C-alpha cells in the first residue's frame, strides 16, 4: 500500500506539471497548443507547430497510460486521454483542410504543394504563405502518423470517419518517398549553408521509417 501511495503521489505531481505547463495552453476550440506566447522579429510563436504539438501531447498521453495502471485515478486518465484525442484531431482537421496539397504532392514532391508545418492555434488555419516558410518537413508529418498509430494501438479512438481513413492513407503515400525527397528538416532551414534550399535530412528519413513501420 505504501508503494502504491508513493506512485500516486508521483503521478499527481506529474499531473500538476502537465496541467500547468501543457494543458493550460491547449486551445479550447481546436485542441492545439502554441509553441510559445512570444511575438518577436523572427515570427509569431503563438502558432501551433505540428512537430511541437505532437511532442507535447506525448507527455500527456504517457501520463494517461500511467494512470491507467492504478485502480483509483480520480478520472485523470480519462481527462488526459481526451485532451490527447482533442489535439490529435485538431492537427488532423488542420491538415485535412489542405487535402488537395497532399494529392498534388504525391505527383510533384514540390515544396509549394506540401502540407504546412504550422497552423493558427485558434482556428487551425494557415498562417504564412506557401513560399514564405520552409513548410516541407517530412519528419513533422511522420511523427504525427507515428503518434496516431501508437495512440490508436493503445485504445484511443482518434479517427472517426472513412474520409479521415482515406486522408491518413494519403499521408502514408505522402511520406513514403522520404528517402529521396529533399525537405527543410527539423530545423526548418534547408541546407546547412542556410541558403533556404531543401536537402535530404536523416532525421526526416528516420522518422518516416518509424511511422511506416508503426
UniProtKB/TrEMBL annotation:
Gene3D superfamilies in the record, alphabetically?
1.50.10.10
Task: Provide the GO MF annotations for this entry.
Answer: calmodulin binding; hydrolase activity
Pathway linked to the protein: Glycan biosynthesis; glycogen metabolism
Q: Does the keyword S-adenosyl-L-methionine apply?
A: no
Residue stretches making up the GH15-like domain: 10-214
Q: In this record, what's one Pfam family? A: Glyco_hydro_15
Q: Which domain of life is it from?
A: Eukaryota
Q: Which UniProt keywords apply?
A: Calmodulin-binding, Carbohydrate metabolism, Glycogen metabolism, Hydrolase
The Gene Ontology CC terms held by the record are: phosphorylase kinase complex
Q: Which GO terms describe its biological process?
A: glycogen metabolic process
Q: Does the keyword Hydrolase apply?
A: yes
- What PANTHER family does the record tag this protein with? PHOSPHORYLASE B KINASE REGULATORY SUBUNIT, PHOSPHORYLASE B KINASE REGULATORY SUBUNIT BETA
**Which protein family is it in?**
Belongs to the phosphorylase b kinase regulatory chain family.
The name this protein carries in UniProt is: Family 15 glycoside hydrolase
Amino acid at each position: 500500500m505504501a508503494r502504491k501511495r508513493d506512485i500516486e503521489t508521483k503521478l499527481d505531481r506529474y499531473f500538476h506539471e502537465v496541467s500547468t505547463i501543457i494543458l493550460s495552453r491547449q486551445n479550447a476550440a481546436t485542441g492545439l497548443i502554441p509553441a510559445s506566447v512570444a511575438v518577436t522579429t523572427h515570427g509569431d510563436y503563438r502558432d501551433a507547430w505540428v512537430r511541437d504539438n505532437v511532442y507535447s501531447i506525448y507527455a500527456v498521453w504517457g501520463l494517461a497510460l500511467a494512470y491507467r495502471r492504478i485502480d483509483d485515478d480520480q478520472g485523470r486518465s480519462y481527462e488526459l486521454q481526451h485532451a490527447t484525442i482533442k489535439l490529435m484531431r485538431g492537427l488532423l482537421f488542420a491538415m485535412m483542410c489542405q487535402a488537395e496539397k497532399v494529392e498534388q504532392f504525391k505527383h510533384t514532391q514540390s515544396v509549394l504543394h506540401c502540407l504546412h508545418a504550422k497552423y493558427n492555434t485558434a482556428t487551425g488555419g494557415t498562417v504564412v504563405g506557401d513560399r514564405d516558410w520552409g513548410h516541407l518537413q517530412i519528419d513533422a508529418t511522420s511523427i504525427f502518423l507515428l503518434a496516431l498509430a501508437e495512440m490508436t494501438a493503445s485504445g484511443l479512438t482518434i479517427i472517426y470517419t472513412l474520409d479521415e481513413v482515406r486522408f491518413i492513407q494519403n499521408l502514408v503515400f505522402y511520406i513514403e518517398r522520404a528517402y529521396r525527397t529533399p525537405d527543410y528538416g527539423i530545423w526548418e532551414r534547408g541546407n546547412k549553408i542556410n541558403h533556404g534550399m531543401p536537402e535530404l535530412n536523416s532525421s526526416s528519413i528516420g522518422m518516416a521509417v518509424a511511422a511506416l513501420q508503426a
